[in-house]
Amino acid sequence: MTRILVTVLILVSLTGCLHVLGDEHAHLYEDGEEVVLWMNTVGPYHNQQETYKYYSLPYCKGLQENIGHYHETLGEALEGYELEYSQIGFNFKSKTAVNAYCEVPELKLEDFKAFEFAIKNRYWYQMFIDDLPIWGVVGEIDQNELFLYTHMKFDIGYNGHRIVDVNMTTEGKTALKQGDKIAFSYEVNWKPSTIKYEDRFDKYLDANFFQHRIHWFSIFNSFMMVIFLVGLVSMILMRTLRKDYARYAKDEEEMDMDRELGDEYGWKQVHGDVFRTPAHLLVFSSVLGTGYQLLVVTIAVILFTILGELYTERGSLLSTAIFVYAATSPINGYFGASIYSQSGGKKWIQQMLASVFLLPFVVCGTAFFINFIAIYYHASRAIPFGSMVAVTCIVLFIVLPLTLVGTVLGRNLAGQADHPCRVNAVPRPIPEKKWFMEPLVIVALGGILPFGSIFIEMYFIFTSFWAYKIYYVYGFMLLVFLILLVVTVCVTIVCTYFLLNAEDYRWQWTSFFAAASTSGYVYMYSIYYFLFKTKMYGLFQTTFYFGHMALFSLGLGIMCGTVGYIGSSYFVRKIYSTVKID
């Protein structure tokens, strides 16, 4: 509904300039038709997310009639795109000789300091022609003297009626001095190209980086680790459980001899408590419901990106993720309510509201905190008020009702819990155990192997998001994600077995946190990446980096924790349904 409303508003607002934007959206041009050059943002090179409006620097504009740009998707607005018409006119296939489009009559002190600061901090800017990005630098320092680039040379390739290639060279190296007159100029050269329209984005993809031999080797290494780990876990558990079953099946006479060998211990001893309701059931069920939803959202977005190449369009990936998250809200409500119902929960309204607002509250709270800093900096990353209202409406009018539907279905279809063992009325005391069997130690060690399986991929993902790379190998991401899930399940099952064998029946939260601890290692790696792999600086960029990495780690932790719990739950039910309980 929100997207339809936004689309209607866009169409109404653009009726006055359809002769320009209609062709831009269709990506088809007739000879001599105007091609629009959009100015986006400008900012320091080492802080990719710290961007400002292009005309926050004292650039002058051309003489063409101004055209307004409206955010076409919610993702475009949230990602800080601020397109402004350059008012520089050139036409399709029409060569434009060197042409001065505007000038600054006298460089005032304030404007001089603005350009000086930008050049010293290596400011770069981004523009778009027919949705193809172009980058340029403001100026440079040569022998302790400041120079400003005042000429833009465009080389545009076309194939039929479509633009398939855009290159820009910054020239016109002009000494920056207060009080001088500065003239800005441009030229446009058109040339036929054999590049297909479908392949025009390939030049922005760094195949040498993402398809490097190390990347392939890391995938192979992770895959071999999965095979080894699954085989090892299967062998250990099968042999150990076989011995356990044999030990528990012995007659009373034989058990007298076993006591001398220390057989009065093990996971069977806690059969009356292993299915006891976990502590903080409402929170536990809400977190698991969110984890189920995030798991579906992640797989769906990766598949959509593989099929639709969403990385080629501004804000499309984020818009798709928001849409899929809203559409899959019934999954959250269903699984959260199912777990809550089977565990005997009674506070349905509180559980549903917790499922709805758990993740949005954390995400929006962090985003709003970063947004306050962005507003203070006057950065383009400041979220517009309209986008805040749109996100709020999505949560209240789409996510909330759909989660309610899922909650009702989960509550009525889940039925009663069918545990293999009865739960004792009185909890069994948990005996003392060795330090490495403590839940905190198990949790801390549980995330090491899953993190090791995604370590290399994290480097490529971080580099694409925090540096100037476009991540496009989503097939690799899907494979690594599946490997992560398998490794997480195997490791969590082993952790759960050790915990139960130490006669500690608190396996639900322990299995969740043992798998979720992977996100803790990811966040620690992000700290290392920030310190040694980037040159970021400043309050805004630092806050933006660690805030978004915290959200990424939180989502990964909830998702991995849910997968770990699913595997452990199946394992626990399986072993206790097989052994004979007196």
Quick summary:
With 582 residues, this protein is an alpha+beta fold. It has 17 helices and 12 strands.
Describe this structure in words.
It is a single chain. The protein is of the alpha+beta class. The chain contains 17 helices and 12 strands. The chain has helices at residues 2-13, 18-26, 74-78, 109-120, 207-210, 213-248, 252-260, 281-308, 316-327, 329-342, 348-377, 385-413, 439-446, 448-466, 474-501, 507-532, 539-578; strands at 34-35, 37-44, 52-53, 84-85, 90-91, 96-104, 123-129, 132-137, 139-142, 145-159, 162-175, 182-192. Strands 2, 3, 4, 7 and 8 form a 5-stranded antiparallel beta sheet that branches. The radius of gyration is 30 Å and the shape is elongated.
Q: What integer value in Å does the Rg equal?
A: 30 Å
Shape: elongated
Name the helicity range. 55-70%
Structural class: alpha+beta
Mean pLDDT figure: 87
Strand content: 5-15%
- Oligomer designation: single chain
* Element order: H for helix, E for strand: HHEEEHEEEHEEEEEEHHHHHHHHHHHHH
Distance between the termini: 58 Å
List low-confidence stretches: 1-22, 258-264
The main β sheet shows up as: 5 strands, antiparallel
> How many beta-strand runs?
12
Tally the helices. 17
List strands and helices in order, with pairings.
Blueprint: H1 2-13, H2 18-26, E1 34-35, E2 37-44, E3 52-53, H3 74-78, E4 84-85, E5 90-91, E6 96-104, H4 109-120, E7 123-129, E8 132-137, E9 139-142, E10 145-159, E11 162-175, E12 182-192, H5 207-210, H6 213-248, H7 252-260, H8 281-308, H9 316-327, H10 329-342, H11 348-377, H12 385-413, H13 439-446, H14 448-466, H15 474-501, H16 507-532, H17 539-578
Parallel strand pairs: 10-12
Antiparallel strand pairs: 1-5, 2-3, 2-4, 2-7, 6-12, 7-8, 9-10, 10-11
